């Protein structure tokens, strides 16, 4: 039985001595993360760290350069 809500996932990762993390294979496959991809790492001191899907970087850039506010 999976206790996670549909479409929600959680993985644990280990930080190496150089501060690197390995994204689990299942997560890389699910989110189509390939070697050389650029990921966006967001941090909030109270909420923690988030790594949104790579499409979020394109969306953010479009919003900035088009001068639109996020909705």
Would you give an account of this structure?
The relative contact order is 0.10. β1 (42-44) and β2 form a beta hairpin. The protein has helices at residues 25-30, 55-66, and strands at residues 42-44, 48-50. The protein contains two helices and two strands, in the order αββα. It is globular. The protein is of the alpha+beta class and 71 residues long. It has a domain at 35-71. A two-stranded antiparallel sheet has the order 1-2.
Count of helical regions: 2
**SS strand fraction:** 5-15%
Q: Output mean pLDDT.
A: 85
Strand order of the largest sheet: 1-2
> What about the largest sheet?
2 strands, antiparallel
Low-confidence stretches: none
What's the helical proportion of residues? 25-40%
Distance between the termini: 36 Å
Quaternary organisation: single chain
- Indicate the structural class: alpha+beta
Radius of gyration: 15 Å
Along the chain, the helix and strand elements come as: HEEH
What is the approximate shape? globular
Number of strands: 2
């Amino acid at each position: 039985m999976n206790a996670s809500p549909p479409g929600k996932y959680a993985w644990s990762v280990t930080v190496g001595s150089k501060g690197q993390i390995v994204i689990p294979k299942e997560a890389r496959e699910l989110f189509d993360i390939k070697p050389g991809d650029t990921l966006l790492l967001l941090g909030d001191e109270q909420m923690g760290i988030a790594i949104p899907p790579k499409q979020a970087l394109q969306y953010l850039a479009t919003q900035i350069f088009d001068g639109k506010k996020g909705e």
